[in-house]
Amino acid sequence: MTHEQAIQVKPLVQAYMGDSVYEQYVRAYLISKPYKNVHDLHKKATAFVKAKSQAEILMHLQEELTEKESDVVRRGRNAHPHTVPKNADIGHYHLATGFEALIGYLYLTEDQERLAYILQKSVEIGEGLYGITRE
Question: Is residue 30 part of a domain?
Fold first, then answer.
């Protein structure tokens, strides 16, 4: 998809795709670590993908985003979801939606290099903020 085509995709649809891509990346990353217990893998994956974590990761990434990427994040952040998870702060949820929209946009535009960079950087930030992968 070109940028022009991908930007026409509704922000919540971009976020829907981004959620899937990000969770798959996080799961693959965690499986590469020494965790063998599925329950432990689930807890650690949840720590990465919860709205608060995604919001904080996005705040750390923001300075590295291009103008187009920042626009995608803004559109995702300002989208109006019909539901909000009961365990998520609305502010974190909106930022997380912007983060997921960015991941979805990069996936849809098939910008593999940039997507790989943002995903790897996100995991590094998550590890640093929360010690997520440490025992």
Answer: yes
DSSP state of 82: S
Strand, coil or helix: 8: helix
End-to-end Cα spacing for the chain? 41
- 89-128 confidence digits (pLDDT tens): 888 999 999 999 999 999 999 999 999 999 999 999 988 8
Domain count, the chain: 1
CA angle 28–31–34, rounded 5-degree value: 150
Assess contact for 123 and 38: CB atoms under 8 A. Answer: no
Give the tens place of pLDDT for each residue, 38-93. Answer: 888 888 888 889 999 999 999 999 999 999 999 999 999 999 877 777 777 888 99
The answer as to whether 10 is a domain residue is yes
* Cβ–Cβ under 8 Å, residues 22 and 105: no
Whether 71 is catalytic is no
Considering the entire predicted model, what is its pTM?
0.90
**Which sign, positive or negative, has the C-alpha torsion 113, 115, 44, 29?**
negative
DSSP 9: S
Q: Could you list the residue range(s) of the whole structural domain that residue 95 is in? A: 3-130
